[in-house]
Every structure is written in structure tokens, then in C-alpha cells.
Amino acid sequence: MPRKKINLPYNIEYLSILDEKGKLDEKLEPDIPKEILFNLHRAMLLGRRFDERLMSLQRQGRIGTFAPVTGQEAAQLGAVALLRSSDWFVPSFRETAAELWRGRNMESVILAFGGFSEGAKSEEKLNNLPVSVPVASQVLHAVGIAWAIKYRQKDDVVMTFLGDGGTSEGDFHEGMNFAGVYQVPVIFVCQNNQWAISVPRSKQTHSKTLAQKSLAYDIPGIQVDGNDVLAVYVAAHEAVQRARSGGGPTMIECVTYRMMMHTTADDPKRYRTEKEVEIWRKRDPLSRFQKYMKDKGLISHDQIEALEEEIKAEIQAAVDHAEDQMKAGGDPLDMFEHTYAELSPNLIEQQEELKREIAAIKEKNHG
Amino acid sequence: MAKMTMVQALNLALRQEMEKDDRVVVLGEDVGVDGGVFRVTDGLIDQFGDQRALDTPLAESGIVGMSIGMAAYGLLPVCEIQFSGFSYLNFHQLECHAARLRWRSQGQITVPMVLRTPYGGGVRALEHHSESREVFYAHMPGLKMVIPSGPRNARALLVSAIRDPDPVVFFEGKAIYRAFREEVPEEEETTPIGKSQVVREGKDLTMISYGAMMRPTLDAALELKEKDGVEAEVIDLLTISPLDDKVFVESVTKTGRAMVIHEAPRSFGPGAEIVSRLMEKAFYYLEAPIARVTGFDVTIPLFSREKAYLPGVQRIAAAARKTLST
Predict the structure, then answer these.
(1) Which residue in B106, B169, B249 has the most chain A C-beta atoms within 10 A of its own C-beta, making it the best mutation to test that interface?
(2) Residues of B in contact with A120 (CB under 8 A)
(3) Which residue of A has its CA nearest to B61?
(4) Cα torsion angle, B136, B142, B145, B151, sign
């Protein structure tokens, strides 16, 4: 009847390839095709500039509340870069940069933050679930999709996102447990951005890492420098390969930082110091990656400037197009669409009620 | 035609739909090897394997959340929550996602799932095993809420629910799982969701009910006929949401008197909505206030007193007599 140590199959590793000063660990440097490096850089820059533009639109009252992604571009883009279009992407609510990578257009994002449900429309059917606001509740949908993929014997995978706060939610644990039991092809990407509104990571859990939550479910887990796009890419590459080849789920903790407020309705000065933000500003994922690209001779200062102009124009076109639609106002009767496949008699009556009200207002205004 | 209990009829519906369509997958706690604690999924694992009759870990939110993902991918999951009293642990998955994904995605992602769960009192069970909370689900735009009242319509409604493009919460009255048998045809039969039925014609009074309360309601109608010579028209709602008011409004314009019978608590219960619809659409035909015979606004008592809580023939008949004498 001994008392002995139980050996668990996994340990938690930490991976960093490009440190905050832009110094590269050449032994760990992945061989990423140039085209992907260019695309990643462009997507990170676009994510940053789009975020900045959304912020100014919000401050001018031209759109409503939104959750900024600045500082987390590497953590999300380094991961989704591994997906192919037939794979599934299941976001939470702070993955705008990743959503654009997955085919959502900027105009639809502006429309949605502008309060128009039409913003969810995409021209083609993408294997993306829409934004999920209730924290971590989307994790289970990813597991269900992954189960269905396995049931259909496809080699697609699912990648879902959550934050440090999300690891406190029951749905996260239920999702991890179900994924472990059924060994389905799902990757849990936790963007540990240190803050759940005002509650710091240290008060969210007593665990040393978030990645170690995976140990309880016998799922491989890894913690990476989430501001190092190369490290995120490498961890996601391993996880996607494992999932695609039938090896089951993986959890990746990307250690990053929410440079901005939780949402535009929040004031972080109430709970965190500018000094802390300054420390993380030096760890910026975008400038770090740009230094890497320049050091490798892949991109020049002038090329970055040209790209900035190109992105600026692209964003402007999206803003113009979205604002035209918002000004036009759309049709309030649209609210009755898509609640059910078909309107029930009761809903038809209610729709008629609103139609009459709108007609009466119009008549009054013109009369 | 074979005579079946509701449990057997539900099993038939699942078996036949699973035979016809490999998108149909049954999942939940104890639904595989054990065949469900009430045996509704009995034998499905033997016929279809453990990938189509899937035993899950014990986590209601996990079961429903996973079903939503399966449905979003294109499967037709039928999940079982062992008792509706435990469905609050998956409540947010229904409210936040199952009911809204079609809307949130502007029709691009749909959730054609069914959540089956036993509800209601009368089987001398533990706490959390006897309540009737259909209004919670009926109040959620985007969900459909269906409650059969016997073996034959249970089978036909479950087939319709599985094929429905929207998420359906399907309540099964524990009290009528095995209480009686009905002829259930082997060949396919469906019943449209969102339509109620007149199950007994009459001219004096309209009795509106559903689920396990249909039996005492029909028994009360019979007693009223025998003892009072009253011809009560009885309506089985079958679907709580979307509520079909056409049939009961038509009936009340004929009878001028109405009562609603349900075991859910009275305040804000299904009866409140039904009475409102009658006020809006049949007010000038009413001869008397509309009666509600319901559970009381208390937690359903433990089983030694549940009989006093649940509407029975005596309480229903007494309320009918009061309505008729006004």
C-alpha cells in the first residue's frame, strides 16, 4: 500500500522565440513560408489600425461599444494562421483581427458595432461562428463541431478562443472535459491578457499558469509568449497537426496584455497603473515582428509605409460604405427575420403591428 | 397497430428517425448503455452504436452546448436532460445561443436540435424531479416548446421536432410515461408543431390544457357530462410556443366560457398568456371570467403532499361549475 507520486503524461512548457527586444532564438526559429509571414504582418498591422479607427469612430459617437484588440494581434493571428477555410473558427468577443483573417469584412464589423444586426451577414458561408459575448460559453460549441467533424471522419479542426477570465467559467471546464473524453480535434486558445475588466489574472485563479488547467483533463497544454507571433505560430502548428492527425485536443495559453480598456465603456485607470501598461508597451507584438521582418530582409521601412497607406485606404472605404448603410437606416421590420425559419401567425400579427406604427409615424411626418 | 406506452412510442420515433437519417444523434447522461433512466433511449446503442447513442459526462451545459455545436455543423442532435429540474444548468446555452444563433448569424448558422426532458409531478420523486417550468422556455424567442399528452402524439410530435429547422424543447410528462397505452402506427406519423387540437367537442365550456394535465381534464369533462349534463369542449395545446390561439379562440367564441388547466404555478404561467389572448380576441363572446386551475405559486411539495398541489378531477370540475354558474 505505498504512497507514491503519480506520473502524469504532460508537463507544462513555456515557449518564446522572439523576445521583447526582438532577439531571436535561432534554434527555435520556425521555417514559416515567406508568403505567410507577409500575410501575418499585414493582418497584424490591419488589426491594429482598424482597432484605432474603431476607437476614434466610437469616441465620435459614430459606432457603439466595442472590445479593442490592440496588443493581442500576435496571440490571435499566430493561431488562426494555421487554419484552412474548411476548418472552424469559434471566437469569443475580442478576436476582431482573427475574424478579418477568417474572411469577415471590416464593413460588417463596423455595422455590428454600429448597432445593425445586418453586420453579421457575409456573402459566402464561412466556417466561423459569430462573436459570443457570454464568457466561455462558446467553448462547448467548438467541442460539438469537433465531435461532428470526427463523426463525419473529416480531417478538419476547430479553434476556439477565450480569455483568462473565461478559465474560471464552468463551460470552459465542461468543454475541456468533453473534448478530452471524446478526443475531438479542437484547439483551445486562451488569450491571457492579464485583466478581466478590473480583475487581474492573480485574482482569477490560484494556478501558476492557465495552461496547466489542461492537466486535469489529460489534454496537452502549453504556455507561450503571446506577443511573439512566431511562438504562437509554432504552438498552434503543433496543436493543429495533433488535432488533424487524430491526436485530440490541445490548450494553448498565450500570455499577452490588453493594452486598451475592456470595452470602450470601461476606464482602466480605476484599477491599473500606467507603469504596468508601459512595461507591456515595450513588449508590443507588432513592432517586435516588424523588427524580425526587417532583420530578415523581408520588408523595408518604405514597404511598411506603403502598406500603411494601402491599409488606411482600405479601412476608409469600409467606413464609408458602412456609414452609408447606417445612414440609410435599413428596415426596422428586419427584427422579425431570423428568429425562426418561418414566422408564426403570432409573429406575423406583431410584425403588422409595428408596420402600422411605422406607417403612422411616416404619415404624421409628411402630413 | 401496436399498443404502446409513451416511453415506447418515443423510442419508436427516435429509432425510426435514426434509421432514416444518420444526422440524428442521441446524447445525454445514461442514454447509451443504460437506455436512459426512463428507458426512452433503450436499445438505441445496440442498433446504432455508441457514436449515435452517446453517453456524456455529467454536465448539462456541456450536453446542450455540445449539441448546439453539432447542430451548427449540420447534425440533428437530440439531447436528453435527465430531469427538467436540472436544465437550469444549461439555461444560458438555450437563451444565449440555441435560441439566437439563427438571428445572430442572420440565418447562416442554425440550431436544429431537440432537447428532450421529463417534467411534472405525480411520480413520488425527490426534490427537483417534479416541477413544470415550461414558461421559462416558452418565453425565449427563437425556441419552440412542445409538450405531448400521450403515446401517439408524443411519437408524432417528436418526429416533427427532430425535423424542425429550429431548436425545440420537448417536455415529457413523467406521470404519463407508462400510465396508459395507445395504438401507435408503425408507419410514419407527424404532427405539426404550433398547432393545437380539439380532442373533445362541446358547446358549453372550453377547457384548455396540455401534457400530463390532459387526463384529469378529460376525466373532469366526462364527469361534467355525466353528473351535470354539461358538454365541455377540450383543447390539447400540444405546442406551448409558438402558441396556436386560433383553435381556442374559435372554441370560446362558440362556448362563451373558458378555463385553463396546468400544473405549472399560476402567476405568469401559460394560463396568463392564454387568458390574455382570449381577452384580445374573444372578449365580446365571454359570458364569465376565465378560470385558471393550476399549481400554486409555491415550490411543488415533496411527494407526500404533491397530490394536494396538482390539479385533479375534483378541482377542475369545481372550477368548471363555478364558471358555468356565472
Answers:
(1) B106
(2) 104-106, 108
(3) A171
(4) negative
| Helix-helix angle B270-282:B246-255, to 10 degrees | 60
Q: Which helix (H) or strand (E) holds A295?
A: helix A285-295
Q: Determine the average pLDDT of the residues in A304-331.
A: 96
Distance CA A90, CA A99 (A): 10
| A341 and A243 in a common domain | no
* Neighbouring C-beta atoms of residue B128, cutoff 10 Å: 13
Distance CA B55, CA A182 (A): 10
Q: Do B242 and A345 touch (CB under 8 A)?
A: yes
CATH topology of domain B2-184: Rossmann fold (3.40.50)
Residues A348 and A248 in one domain: no
pLDDT in the model for residue A367 = 64
ipTM > 0.90 (yes/no): yes
Q: What is the C-alpha to C-alpha distance for residues B237 and A100, in angstroms, rounded to an integer?
A: 47
Considering only the C-alpha atoms of chain A, give the largest distance between any 2 of them, rounded to a whole number of Å.
92
Structure confidence by residue, pLDDT tens digits, A87-105: 999 999 999 999 999 999 9
Q: Are residues A248 and A351 in the same domain?
A: no
* A contact set with B (CB within 8 A): 88, 90, 117-118, 120-122, 125, 129-134, 137-149, 151, 170-171, 174-175, 177-178, 181, 337-341, 344-347
Q: What is the pLDDT of residue A1?
A: 74
Measured between alpha carbons, how far is A70 from A67 in angstroms, rounded to an integer? 9
Whether A7 maps to a domain, the answer reads no
Q: Is B230:B260 a contact under the CB 8 Å cutoff?
A: no
pLDDT of B187 over the 80 cut: yes
Residue whose C-alpha cell reads 488533424 in the numeric block: A244
In a domain, A190, yes or no: yes
Domain contains A8: no
B10-45, pLDDT tens digit by residue?
999 999 999 999 999 999 999 999 999 999 999 999
pLDDT at B141 over 80: yes
CA–CA separation, A38 vs A200, rounded Å? 34
Interface test with B, best of A118, A140, A217 (most B CBs within 10 A): A140
Residues of B belonging to the active site: 129
Residue A344 belongs to what domain range?
332-366
Indicate whether A244 pLDDT > 90.
Answer: yes
Chain A residues near residue B97 by CB distance under 8 angstroms: 132, 137-138, 141
Please indicate whether residue A258 is annotated as part of the active site.
Answer: yes
CA–CA gap between residue A241 and residue B283 (Å, rounded):
67
φ, ψ of residue A160 to 5 degrees: the values are -120, 155
> The C-alpha cell of A68 is what?
479593442
- Tally of domains in chain A: 2
How many CB atoms sit inside 10 A of residue B61's CB?
A: 23
In the CATH scheme, what is the code of domain B197-325?
3.40.50.920
- What residues in A contact B62, CB-CB < 8 Å? 140, 143, 171, 174-175, 177-178
CATH number of residue A310's parent domain:
3.40.50.970
Other CB atoms closer than 10 Å to residue B189's CB: what's the count? 18
Residue of A nearest to B242 (CA): A344
- Which is catalytic among the residues A14, A59, A151, A271? A271
Alpha carbon of B294: minimum distance to chain A alpha carbons (Å): 25
- Tell whether A345 and A240 lie within a shared domain: no
Among B22, B25, B18, B53, smallest CA distance to B39 is for B53
Q: What is the DSSP string of A170-184?
A: HHHHHHHHHHHHHT-
One-letter identity of residue B137: Y
This prediction has a pTM of 0.97
